[in-house]
Write a structure and sequence with these properties.
Helices cover 44% and strands 21% of the residues. With 345 residues, the protein is of the alpha+beta class. Helix 1 runs parallel beside helix 6, helix 3 packs across helix 4 and helix 3 packs antiparallel against helix 6. The relative contact order is 0.15.
Length: 345
């Protein structure tokens, strides 16, 4: 019997084959994983490109009139106006709706920080579209997105580079897409739902998980406080959504999040510009989001109630936003004054 065909030789060969199969198996596991991840990421990318590109609306602006040059979110500090529009199929008011929520986010790429300021809906401001003062949430009813942008730029004296306009359905769908958010409900209250059914949502105080309808009710209610506290709650809800969206547990929910946002949103951001904001999310749960508030006081010169801003605090907020955007304060102020003067003729 030859040595190559001996029982010992055959055993050695079988042992080598088993070791080889084990090596191939253990090598294949990460390989299959990375291929699967690659396919998933590629699918998500294509889905995002299609859905979010459909949300794009050309607003006819290469840049804000308060900018000296075109900016991009990768290299420059930019601002985003977030508009929550009080429109729905139930109310049939898409074309003349008011903004129920107005927030301005400034983003600084150097330190990956975000400043988020909420503008109370009853704030008394000058609206260039009509040439007189009124509640800021009326600007959208007077002239849509353009009128709202011009009003916010005039108020805060900063350029609005991008806008995102969403309706209530988007808010509900996004919260549900991440399987709800954890938030501290400040007090017991009852609120209507997205179908305007009175008292449909009933929440008790305390830290708890909320679904989309419940989170919307918390964002909308102001029965037991005022617009300032309402704005603070909305900021906390947005931070909770961002935190949940960029968590490891939500990776497989990206597809649902994209669908929820894209089908309920309009924006002047192209898909390529949106990708410029990815670096803010990849910083993780330590993303620095500072919430700012426009303080003021109740003002009722006649039968209509307004929120009158405190001039000193408003000036401090303007300065903070301008510094965060790295813009020339005097240049922007002069351009704002020029635009306001021109609108009066």
């Amino acid at each position: 019997m030859s040595k190559n065909n001996s029982p010992q030789s055959r055993m050695v060969k079988r042992t080598k084959r088993r070791k080889l199969r084990k090596r191939v198996f253990f090598i294949s596991i990460p390989l299959i994983f990375f291929v699967a991840v690659g396919i998933y990421v590629g699918t998500i990318y294509l889905k995002a490109d299609q859905v979010l590109s459909d949300s794009y609306v050309d607003d006819g602006r290469e840049k804000s009139d308060l900018r000296e040059k075109i900016v991009n979110p990768i290299d420059d500090s930019v601002s985003v106006l977030i508009m929550g529009v009080d429109a729905s199929n139930i109310r049939a008011n898409e074309n003349n709706s008011r903004t129920d929520t107005l927030m301005v986010a400034t983003l600084n790429p150097d330190d990956k920080s975000v400043k988020l300021v909420s503008i109370p809906r009853d704030t008394l401001v000058y609206i260039p579209e009509v040439g007189y003062e009124d509640k800021i949430n009326h600007a959208h009813a007077y002239g849509g997105t353009e009128a709202t942008i011009n009003t916010v730029e005039n108020l805060l004296e900063i350029p609005i580079d991008y806008y995102v306009k969403v309706n209530f359905e988007a808010f509900i769908d996004v919260v549900d897409a991440v399987n709800g958010i954890t938030i501290d409900v400040p007090y017991e209250f009852s609120e209507q739902d997205s179908n305007d059914v009175a008292g449909a949502i009933h929440l008790l105080p305390g830290i708890q998980d909320l679904n989309g309808e419940e989170a919307l009710a918390l964002a909308r209610t102001r029965k037991l406080d005022n617009d300032i506290e309402r704005g603070k709650r909305q900021q906390e809800i947005i931070k909770a959504i961002v935190k949940k969206s960029i968590s490891v547990g939500s990776i497989l929910k990206v597809d649902d999040i994209i669908e929820a946002v894209g089908t309920n949103m309009t924006t002047n951001m192209s898909f390529n510009e949106m990708k410029g904001f990815i670096s803010y999310g990849t910083k993780g749960t330590n993303l620095d989001i500072e919430a700012l508030t426009l303080e003021g006081y109740d003002y009722k010169p006649g039968k209509v109630y307004y929120w009158k801003l405190d001039d000193l605090q408003l000036a401090e907020t303007k300065q903070a936003l301008q510094n965060h955007l790295d813009i020339n304060t005097s240049t922007v102020t002069n351009q704002t004054n020029s635009l306001e003067s021109a609108s009066q003729y």
